[in-house]
């Protein structure tokens, strides 16, 4: 283990080299830990094709799910940024597909979120809005909103996200996607209308009171729409990862 700049360290695990935060408390909310490997003695056969392991048919562990497979069922090495691996790692077919889909988020949507977008921000039931630049923090843990005033929302404290679209009056039809990050709610996705805003509900630290923010695309609406679409992807990724 060796320390490197910007608060990260290089760690060698049984699965490969990983670049992780020096302080685990500052891990990205998109990150998840390496799984416990299924013990060799508990998997005499491939957990996909049921081929019996022997001297010629060796067993391999998927780095994402930890299950045991033969080389045929676990031969591909795929990038796995959600576990902070430096190089692509061996994964089973199912996990490899998940990781490949997530790479699009890391290559495209995450960069959009870090760059930010311009919005009119309304707090609660206030009739006043403020022009603010909204972006994801570098460690992915907070949404920063900066204008004359400053706001920040921790992603882990978000209870729901609603992405609003153009073309409908307020109401049920304006929900392009609904994702609950804390409670066990469903996800519903609408059509292909351009995102125009977002409703956030979140809980303040050490409080169960629900706060609400409304963001409406302001200047550079195309950039704001792309940012909102990326936020949709991020919220869905966080929701689905709870059960992984």
From TrEMBL:
It comes from the Eukaryota. The keyword Zinc applies. One of its GO terms (molecular function) is zinc ion binding. SUPFAM superfamilies: FYVE/PHD zinc finger. Keywords: Metal-binding, Zinc, Zinc-finger. The keyword Metal-binding applies. Residues 40-95 form the FYVE-type domain. This is ZFY21 protein. It comes from Polypterus senegalus. The gene is Zfyve21.
């Amino acid at each position: 283990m060796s320390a490197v700049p910007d608060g990260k360290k290089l760690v060698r695990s049984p699965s490969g080299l990983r670049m992780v935060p020096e302080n685990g408390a500052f891990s990205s909310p998109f990150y998840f830990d390496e799984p416990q490997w299924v013990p060799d003695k508990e998997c005499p056969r491939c957990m996909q094709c049921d081929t019996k392991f022997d001297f010629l048919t060796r067993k391999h562990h998927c780095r994402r799910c930890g299950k045991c497979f033969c080389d045929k069922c676990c031969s591909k090495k795929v990038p796995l940024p959600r576990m902070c691996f430096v190089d692509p790692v061996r994964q089973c077919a199912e996990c490899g597909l998940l990781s490949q889909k997530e790479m699009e988020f890391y290559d495209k949507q995450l960069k959009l979120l870090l760059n930010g977008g311009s919005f009119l921000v309304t707090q609660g039931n206030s009739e006043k809005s403020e022009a603010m630049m909204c972006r994801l923090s570098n460690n992915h843990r907070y949404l920063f909103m900066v204008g004359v005033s400053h706001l920040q929302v921790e992603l882990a404290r978000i209870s729901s996200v609603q992405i609003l679209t153009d073309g409908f009056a307020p109401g049920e039809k304006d929900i392009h996607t609904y994702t609950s990050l804390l409670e066990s709610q469903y996800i519903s996705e609408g059509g292909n209308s351009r995102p125009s805003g977002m409703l956030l509900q979140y809980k303040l630290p050490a409080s169960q009171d629900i706060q609400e923010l409304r963001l409406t695309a302001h200047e550079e609406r195309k950039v704001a729409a792309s940012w909102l679409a990326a936020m949709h992807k991020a919220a869905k990724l966080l929701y689905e990862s709870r059960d992984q």
